[in-house]
C-alpha cells in the first residue's frame, strides 16, 4: 500500500490521534510539514490517501502553497484517492472544490456539541449517535461544494462536516490528544482571552479541566470516522 500523505501547516497541529489510529492498524503514512518548508507534491498518484490538518492561517491568505494544495486536492478527487480535512484542512477542501470560506458569526474555541444529520449518509460516517462533543478552534467556516452532503452542525456553526463519496471535510477537530490540547491552550492563551466575549469560547482552565472526561468519547467518534475513511483507501 502506498502511504497516506498527512499535511501539517503549523508545528503544534500534527495528526494527533489519527497517527495512533493508523499506526495501530499498520497503515503507512508520511508527514509533509508545510510549516517546515516541505514541498507540496504535484500529484496525488504516489499516495493512497491525503489528509490535511489544521492551522492558524486562512485559506484566503496570500500564501504560495495554498493554490498548490488546492490543485492537489482536485487531483486526488479526480483519481478517486480519498481526502480528509480537519478544520483548515476541511476549508482547503471546500475552497478547492468550489465552496467558499468566510468568517463564522462567532469564534468557537473549546468543547461543544455537534449534531449528526438524520440520514443514511451521516450515519455511515458517525454511526448511530445523534450528537457528540467535538473540539473547536476556528473563526471561519466553509460552505458546501457542489455535490456535497451536509453531515454535522452546531449551534454556532451550521457547517461542521460534509462528504462527497469517500472524501470528508471536518470543521471541528476530532484528532485531539491531551498533549495537543495543552499545547494549543498555551500557545493560544492570548487568542482565547481576546475572544472571551464570544458565547462559544471557553476559558483555558475549563478546556483543560474537561479534557480528561471528553477525550475518550471524542476518540470513539474519531475512530468511527477514520475507520470509514480508510475503507476507501486504494
How would you describe this protein?
- Strand 3, helix 2 and strand 4 form a beta-alpha-beta unit.
- The protein has a single domain (4-230), classed as Rossmann fold.
- The protein contains 7 helices and 9 strands; from the N terminus they run βαββαβαβαββββααα.
- It has 234 residues and is an alpha/beta fold.
- The protein has helices at residues 17-24, 64-78, 88-96, 120-126, 178-187, 189-194, 204-230, and strands at 4-8, 29-33, 49-52, 83-86, 101-116, 131-142, 149-154, 157-164, 167-170.
- Helices cover 35% and strands 27% of the residues.
- Helix 2 crosses helix 3 and helix 5 packs across helix 7 (204-230).
- The protein is globular and about 45 Å long.
- It has a 9-stranded mixed beta sheet.
SSE map:
Blueprint: E1 4-8, H1 17-24, E2 29-33, E3 49-52, H2 64-78, E4 83-86, H3 88-96, E5 101-116, H4 120-126, E6 131-142, E7 149-154, E8 157-164, E9 167-170, H5 178-187, H6 189-194, H7 204-230
Parallel strand pairs: 1-2, 1-3, 3-4, 4-9
Antiparallel strand pairs: 5-6, 5-7, 7-8, 8-9
**First-last Cα distance:** 8 Å
Order of strands side by side in the largest beta sheet? 2-1-3-4-9-8-7-5-6
CATH superfamily: Class I glutamine amidotransferase (GATase) domain
Number of strands: 9
- List SSEs in N-to-C order: EHEEHEHEHEEEEHHH
Reported for the largest beta sheet, the result is:
9 strands, mixed
Shape: globular
Strand content: 25-35%
Q: Would you tell me which CATH topology applies?
A: Rossmann fold
CATH class: Alpha Beta
Given helix and strand content, the structural type is alpha/beta
Tally of helical runs: 7
Rg computed from alpha carbons, rounded to a whole number of angstroms:
16 Å
**Contiguous runs where pLDDT drops below 50 for at least 5 residues:** none
Q: Please state the second-level CATH architecture.
A: 3-Layer(aba) Sandwich
Helical percentage: 25-40%
Mean pLDDT: 97
Our count of domains comes out at 1
Amino acid at each position: 500500500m502506498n502511504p497516506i500523505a498527512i499535511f501539517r501547516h503549523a508545528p503544534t497541529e500534527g495528526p494527533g490521534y489519527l497517527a495512533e489510529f493508523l499506526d495501530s492498524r499498520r497503515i503507512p503514512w508520511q508527514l509533509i510539514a508545510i510549516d517546515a518548508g516541505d514541498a507540496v507534491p504535484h500529484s496525488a498518484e504516489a499516495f493512497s490517501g491525503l489528509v490535511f490538518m489544521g492551522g492558524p492561517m486562512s485559506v484566503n491568505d496570500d500564501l504560495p502553497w495554498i493554490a498548490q494544495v488546492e490543485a492537489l486536492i482536485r487531483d486526488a478527487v479526480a483519481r478517486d484517492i480519498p481526502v480528509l480535512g480537519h478544520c483548515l484542512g476541511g476549508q482547503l477542501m471546500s475552497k478547492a472544490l468550489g465552496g467558499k470560506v468566510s468568517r463564522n458569526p462567532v469564534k468557537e474555541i473549546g468543547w461543544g456539541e455537534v449534531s449528526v444529520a438524520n440520514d443514511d449518509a451521516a450515519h455511515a460516517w458517525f454511526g448511530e449517535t445523534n450528537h457528540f462533543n467535538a473540539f473547536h478552534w476556528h473563526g471561519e467556516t466553509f460552505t458546501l461544494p457542489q455535490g456535497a452532503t451536509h453531515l454535522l452542525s452546531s449551534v454556532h456553526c451550521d457547517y461542521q462536516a460534509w462528504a462527497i463519496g469517500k472524501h470528508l471535510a471536518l470543521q471541528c477537530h476530532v484528532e485531539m490528544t491531551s498533549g495537543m490540547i495543552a499545547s494549543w491552550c498555551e500557545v493560544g492563551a492570548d487568542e482565547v482571552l481576546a475572544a472571551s466575549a464570544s458565547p462559544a469560547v471557553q476559558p483555558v482552565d475549563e478546556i483543560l479541566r474537561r479534557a480528561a472526561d471528553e477525550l475518550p468519547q471524542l476518540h470513539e467518534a474519531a475512530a468511527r470516522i477514520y475507520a470509514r475513511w480508510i475503507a476507501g483507501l486504494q
